[in-house]
Amino acid sequence: MIVATFKTFILCLGLLTFGYTFIVSGIIINLLQCCTLVIWPFNKDLYRRINCKLVYFLWSQLIFVAEYWSGSDCILYEDEEDKYKWGTESALCIVNHHEEVDWLLCWIMCQRFGVLGSSKVFAKKELRYVPFIGWSWTLLEMIFLRRDWSKDKPYLIKCLKILAEYPVNSWVLLFCEGTRFTEQKKLKSNEVARQKGLPELKHHLLPRTKGFVVVMEAFKGKVPAIYDCTLGCSNDHAEATLYNLVMRKKCMGHMLVRRIEINDVPTETEQETAMFCHKMYQYKDRAYDYFLEHQTFEGFDGKHGRKIPRNYKSLINEMFWTITLCVPTFYYIGKLLLNGPIWYTVITAIVILLAVLFVRAMISVTDTKRGSSYGGKKQD
Predict the structure, then answer these.
(1) What's the mean per-residue pLDDT of the chain?
(2) Residue 258 DSSP SS3
(3) Cα 6 to Cα 323: distance, rounded to the nearest angstrom
(4) Cys-Cys crosslink for 176: which of 207, 274, 301, 359, Cβ 3.0 to 4.6 Å?
C-alpha cells in the first residue's frame, strides 16, 4: 500500500513537472524562433541552422519521456554495409503508419544519429495549430498538407525545392499510407487495390503515390538515399501509445531499414515511380507479417538487431529545464501556499488542473481513433 502510494505520488509529481517545463519551455523556444525571423530576409540558411538547434531543446523533451521516463527503446535491423551511413547524409525515410507513436520512435533514431533538430515530416494541416510542437514545426518550414491534391501539389513542389538543398543533413519522414492503419481502413484500401489490379496488403494500407512521385522528381540527384523503414512493436511490452509512455509503461520498437540509392528509383514515367512505391509497401507487408509471427525480421533469426546507445542529451536537456524552471517556481508557489490567503491555493489548484487537461489534450492528438479516413476521395 505504501509502495503503491509512493509510486502514484512520483508519477503525479513527474507529470506535473514535465507538463510545466514543456509548456513554459515551449513558449520560450517559440518566442526565440519568432525573434530569429529578423534573420530570414538576409540569410535563410543561417535562420534554418539556428532554428534546427532551437527546436531540439523542445522536441528532445518528448525523447526524454520515451527513453527515460517510460524506459522505451527502438532496436535497429540493418545491412552491415549500411550502418556507417546513418546520420552522415540527408535521406527520405518511408515509414509504415501502424503505431500511434511511430513518429516518436523514428525521432528516437533521429536523435541518436544527430538529425533530430533538422528532421522533417509530411503532416496534416491541422497539426500546425497544435501549441508549441505545431508552432515550432511551422517556423521550421515543416510540410503541412490539406489532402486536396489540386492545392497540395504546387505547395509541395515549392517546399521540396527547399528541402532538397537544406543546409544541414535532414531526414524527411514520409508516411505514404496517409493515415494510420486500422482494420476498417484496410477494407477500403483493399477495395481500391482490387480496382487497380494491385495485390491486397494484410497489414498496410495501399500507399498514396502521387506525393511520392513528386518527391522523387524533386529529390533525385540532390538527396542521396531512401531509407525504407518498417516498424513493428513487441507484443510482450505495452502498446505503443503516447498515453502508455506518459504512464511509464515500456514500449519496444523494432525497425528494419533498407538503404536504397535514390538514383536507382525509376522516374522515366509516373507509373514506374508509383509502382516502385507499391513494391516497397508489398515488401513492408511481408516483413511486418514475418515480424508478427517471429518478433524479429526475416534474415535476423537467432540474432538481435542493433541497440543504438543513448547519448544522454535528452536527459541533460530535461534536467536543465527542470532546474531552471521548476525549482524557483515551486519554491515561490510553496511560499505562497504557506503564507498566502486561501484563494492562492484555489488559483494554484485551478492552474494545475488546466495544465493536466492541456497535457491530456496534447496526448489525444495522436490517438489512432482520431486519424483521418481512408478512401474518402479518389485515391492515386
Answers:
(1) 87
(2) strand
(3) 22
(4) 207
